[in-house]
Design goal:
With 252 residues, this protein is α+β, with helices and mostly antiparallel strands. It has a domain of 42 residues. The chain contains ten helices and seven strands. The strands form two sheets. Strands 3, 4, 5, 6 and 7 form a five-stranded mixed sheet that branches. Strands 1-2 form a two-stranded antiparallel ribbon. A hairpin with a 2-residue loop joins strand 1 and strand 2. Helix 2 packs antiparallel against helix 3 and helix 3 crosses helix 4. The longest helix has 23 residues. The radius of gyration is 23 Å and the shape is globular.
Length: 252
C-alpha cells in the first residue's frame, strides 16, 4: 500500500527534479523500500538458517533468495511476483490468492556455467488469523457502516469446518527445501507475524493416491471404484478448463 501511494503521488506530480513531466522512475523508491525490508528480514532469516531443523541446502537457498531480491535478480523478481498476496475483494468474502503457479514452476536459477542449480517450488499456505483479531476487525467495519444488512460473517454458521476462516495463499520457494523445512520456516515467521500458518503442498503424493488402482486384500470388493476415478478426473479437468482458464495455457 505504501508503495502504491508513493507511486501515485510521484506519478501525479507535475514537476520532478525541476523539469515538467508526467512520469517518474520509481526505481530509487523501490530500492529504499527493498532495503528496509531486507533489514527487517535479515535477523529473522539468520536465526532460522542457523537452526538444526534446516539442511545446509535449504538454509543456503534462503539467503540466496534474500541476496537475489536485494540485487534485483530476474529469477528472484519472477519468484516473488509468483507468490499470492492479500486476496482481492476480501471484504466481499474472497479468501483465496493463488499467485502464479506456472510462473513459479518455470523459475530457474543458473550458475556461472549456465547450469540450473535451483527451480521454483509451489505450495499452498493456509493462514488462520486469531479469532479475536477477526472479531475486532468486523466490529470496526460495522461501526463505519460496512456489512450493513448482512449477516455477521463470523456467526453466520455454527459448522466448525465451514465457519473456520482461513486465507489460502500461493507460496513460491526454491526446491532446495523439503515440505517439513518449509513448515518450519512458516512456523518461524509466525513469531514475527502473530498468525497461525499451515502448509499444504499440492504434492505429487496426492496425485499418486488419486490414480492408485491397487487394492488391499480387505477391500477387493471395492476395486470397481477405480473406474469411477477416471470419470471424476475427466470431469474435474473439464470443469477447470472452463472455470479456471489462465492465459499461460496458450504458451508455446
Amino acid at each position: 500500500m505504501a508503495i502504491v501511494l508513493a507511486g501515485w503521488t510521484w506519478l501525479n506530480s507535475p514537476f520532478v527534479s525541476g523539469e515538467e513531466t508526467s512520469t517518474k522512475s520509481l526505481e530509487a523508491e523501490l530500492t529504499d523500500v527493498g532495503g528496509m525490508l531486507m533489514k527487517k528480514m535479515m535477523p529473522v532469516a539468520s536465526e532460522l538458517a542457523t537452526s538444526p531443523e534446516l539442511s545446509p541446502e535449504c538454509a543456503g537457498s534462503l539467503f540466496k533468495i534474500l541476496k537475489g531480491t536485494r540485487a534485483r535478480e530476474p529469477w528472484a523478481i519472477r519468484m516473488i511476483l509468483a507468490n499470492g498476496l492479500l486476496p482481492n475483494n476480501i471484504l466481499e468474502g474472497s479468501l483465496i490468492s493463488l499467485g502464479g503457479y506456472e510462473q513459479c514452476l518455470k523459475t530457474r536459477v543458473f550458475n556461472s556455467e549456465g547450469e540450473v542449480t535451483h527451480k521454483g517450488q509451489y505450495c499452498t499456505l493456509f493462514v488462520y488469523p486469531p479469532w479475536s483479531v477477526l472479531e475486532t476487525l468486523v466490529k470496526k467495519f460495522q461501526a463505519v457502516g460496512e456489512f450493513t444488512g448482512r449477516l455477521n460473517p463470523l456467526t453466520v454458521t455454527t459448522n466448525a469446518k465451514i465457519g473456520k476462516k482461513a486465507l489460502r495463499i500461493g507460496l513460491c520457494t526454491l526446491n532446495s527445501c523439503t515440505e517439513e523445512e518449509v513448515k518450519f520456516l512458516a512456523a518461524g515467521v509466525r513469531v514475527w507475524l502473530p498468525l497461525r500458518w499451515f502448509m499444504y503442498f499440492s504434492a505429487i503424493s496426492n496425485t499418486k493416491r488419486l490414480l492408485k488402482t491397487t487394492a488391499r486384500k480387505d477391500n477387493q470388493n471395492l476395486v470397481f471404484l477405480s473406474g469411477f476415478k477416471v470419470f471424476l478426473i475427466f470431469w474435474v479437468i473439464y470443469a477447470h478448463c472452463y472455470v479456471l482458464i489462465q492465459p499461460e495455457f496458450a504458451r508455446k
